[in-house]
Amino acid sequence: MTARVDGPDKVTGRARYAFEQPADGAAYVWAVPSVIAKGTIRSVDASGALALPGVLAVITPDNAPRLPGAEDPELALFQSRAVAYRGQFVAAVVAETLETAREAADRVVISYERAAHDVTLTASHPRLYKPDHVNPRYETDTAVGDFDVAIAAAPIRVDATYRTPAEHNHPMEPHATVAAWRGDTLTVYDATQGPSRAAGQVAAVFGLEPGQVRVIAEHVGGGFGAKGMPRANVILAAMAARVTGRSVKCAVTRPQMFAVTGHRAPSIQRVRLGASPDGRLVAVGHDVIDQTSTLKEFAEQSAVATRHMYAAPHRRTTHRVVRLDVPTPSWMRAPGECPGMFALESAMDELAEACGVDPVELRLRNEPLVHPETGRPFSSRNLAACLREGAARFGWAGRDPAPGARRDGRWLTGTGVAASTYPARAMASQARVNLSAAGRYQVSIAAADIGTGARTALLAVAAEALGVAVADIDLRIGDSALPTAMIAGGSMGTASWTWAVIKACHALREQVRTRDGAVPSGGLTAQAATAADIAALPDHARYSFGAQFAEVRVDADTGEVRVPRLLGVFAAGRIISPVQARSQLIGGMTMGLSMALHEESAMDPEFGDYANHDLAGYHIAAHADVQDIDAVWIDEEEPELGPAGAKGIGEVGIVGTAAAIASAVYHATGIRVRDLPIRLDKLLRSNP
Ligand code: MOS
Question: Can you tell me which atom of ligand 1 is nearest the CA of 225?
Fold first, then answer.
C-alpha cells in the first residue's frame, strides 16, 4: 500500500485489483439469481449441486447465517424468502474452483411462488408518493412565491416533459471481493470507493464492531458511485468464507451488474419556465418522477440544481417516486444534477428560442446574486465567466442560421450550449503523518484511488504542505486500518482528504519547528481531523459551475449523430493536478456524450428485468465517438473548502453535456429530442 507514482504499476499490470489479491487456499462463490421479478421462494433443492465434486456449500434462505444488522435490505442476503426483483441473489454455491461453483449454481433448483410484477414507470402511476427527503438528505419539495399564478401570467412560457432512461454504471472493473475470517475479525479486499465506510457498514451487517472488519482497496478500476457503498458481493464473499472456513473470492459478472450494483433510475421530468419577452425568468417549476425498489427507497434528487441555477421570484420543485419490482436505484455520476440538468438546460434552450434571445445571453440574464431559494450568498459563483470564456474559445455564433438550415453535404450541422453545476462540499476525514529519524515522511489516510490518480494529487499536496520533495514521502491509502476518510464520491474525495492531509502536515512541521529540526530516534507523528473545521464552515451556498459547448453533425439520410467538438469550461476552485483534472473533466463529458447518444437500459416488462446484459447491448461511447474534446478551467478562489481550496471535479463534467448535445441536434435538424438517448430513429421518425 506504499506507492509513489503508481502509473507504471497500472500500465504494466503490477497494480493489484481486489480479485487479484492472493489468498491461500481460496474457494469461490457463485450466486444464483432469481428468475422471477416478484414472489416467494417455495423451496430450494441443493442436492444436484452438492453432488458435484468440489462443491463446499450451497447457501440458501434455509441455512444462511443470520445477519443481525443488515439495515440495507440489498445486503440482507438470504435472510428472507421474498423475491424483490429479477436477478436478485437468492442462493449461492461455494466451491473449490470458479468453474465448479458456476456449474453447481446452475444445478440449484429453486421453486417459486410467482406474483404479478410491476416494473413500468409512468407519469400517472397510482402509487407515486412523496418521499420524506431525496438523496442524500435534500428537501423533497420547495416553493417560493406563487408559482401557479406567476406561470399562468407569464408572457413567454415553456412547458415541456423530458425523459431519461434507466442507466447503469459500468466501471472497467466489475465489483469483486476477497474475504477471509480470522476468529471474529474479517479482512476483505474489495473494489470500493471508500474503505472506511465499507468497513463500518460490513461490520454492522455481521453485528461486529467497526474495528473487527478491515477493508483493503489498493487499486479500484472505476466506480462512478456504483462502488460508493458495499454491494451484495461483499456480504456474499464474507458469508461464504464464514460458512466454509476458507478465504473466498467473489466476482460480480457484467450481466449481474444490471441487477445488483445499482442503476440510475429512469426519470420523467416536467419543466415549466415563465419569462418576460426579454427572457428574464419570473417562474421556474421542475417536477420529477422516478422509480425506486420495494426493498429500499432511493429518490434521485433531480430537481435540486434547479433550486440555485437561475433567479426567478416564483419557483417550485417537487420529487415523486414509485416503488416498483425493480433493483434498487443508486448513485451514478452526479445523481440528481445529471438527469435534472438535462431537463432544465434543455428547457432553457427552448426558452431562448421562444424569446429570440441567444442561449448564452439568456443564462447571463438570469444569474442570481444569492441562492434563489435560501437567500444564502454563494461562496463563489463563476457561471457567467465560464459561459463567456467558453463562447470566446468555441467561437459561439448562437442560433444563426435558423435550426435545420446549416448543411455540409449530407450532414446537417448545429451547435448547442448548456450550463453545468455540482455541489462543492467536503466531509470529515482524518490523516496521519510520520517523520522518521532518517528523514522520510509517511502520510496515511484511508482514501481510495478509483482510477483518478488520487495518489498523485495527495502526494503533490503533502509535498507542498511539508515543504519537501514528493520523493521524500511514502503515501499509504486504500485501507480502513488507516485514518478514517471520506469515500471517493460526491466529488468530495480530494477536497476532504487534502484538508486532513494538509492539516496533519502543518502540525508535523510545527513539531519539527519547536524542536529546532531535531527528530527523536522514534520519529515524530502528527494526526489531524477535520470534523470540527467542517462543522464551523460559514453558511454559504457552494457549487462548481461550468459551461458545455457542443457541435454536432447529423446525417440527413440515416439520422446518425456525430459530435465533432465538445468544449467544457469549469470553475471548480483550485485545480490541484492539471493533467488528472483535465482527464476527470473530459471523462465526465464523455460519459455525458454517452448518455446523450447511447446509454439506455431497457426494461423488459414481460420478464421484469433490464434486457441489456453486456456491453454489446448497453452501448457506452468509445474512442471513435469522441473527437475534438477539451476541458479548461478559469482561476477561482475557494478559500472556505479547506486549505487546498478544491471544489471537486469528479461529477461537474457530466452535468449539462447531454443538454448541450441535444440542443445542438435541435439546431442541426429542427427536431427537439426530449427523451434520451438521441437514437437515430427519433430523428428519422419526426423527419418526413
Ligand atoms: Mo459519485 S455518484 O458521488 O460516486
Answer: 4
Q: How far is the CA of 266 from the centre of ligand 1 (A)?
A: 17
Residue partners of 417: CB distance under 8 A and separation at least 6: 349, 359, 360, 387, 390, 391, 396, 547, 548, 549, 550, 660, 663
- Reply yes or no on whether the pLDDT at 294 is more than 50: yes
Which of 197, 224, 337 maximizes ligand 1 atoms within 8 Å of its Cβ, making it the mutation to test the pocket? 224
488 Cα–ligand 1 center, Å? 8
- Kindly give, in sequence order, each residue whose CB lies less than 8 Å from that of residue 183, ignoring residues fewer than 6 positions away: none
Write the DSSP string, 210-272.
Answer: GGGEEEE-SB----TTTTSS--HHHHHHHHHHHHHTS-EEEE--HHHHHHHS--BPPEEEEEE
Closest C-alpha to 663, from 557, 586, 548: 548
Residue listed under C-alpha cell 444445478 = 107
Largest CA distance in the chain: 82
Phi, psi of 637, deg, nearest 5: -95, 130
Q: Which residue has the cell 471474529?
A: 184
Does residue 618 have a pLDDT over 50?
yes
Question: Could you give the dihedral angle defined by the CA atoms of residues 501, 502, 505 and 511, in that order, rounded to the nearest 10 degrees?
Answer: -130
- Interval 241-275: pLDDT, tens: 999 999 999 999 999 999 999 999 999 999 999 99
Residue 398 reports pLDDT greater than 90: no
Instruction: Give the pLDDT band (50/70/90) at residue 487.
Output: very high
Ligand 1 lined by 314 (C-beta under 6 Å): no
Q: Averaged over 157-185, what is the pLDDT?
A: 98
SS3 at position 478:
coil
- Give the separation between CA 568 and CA 551, rounded to whole angstroms: 12
- SS3 at position 343: helix
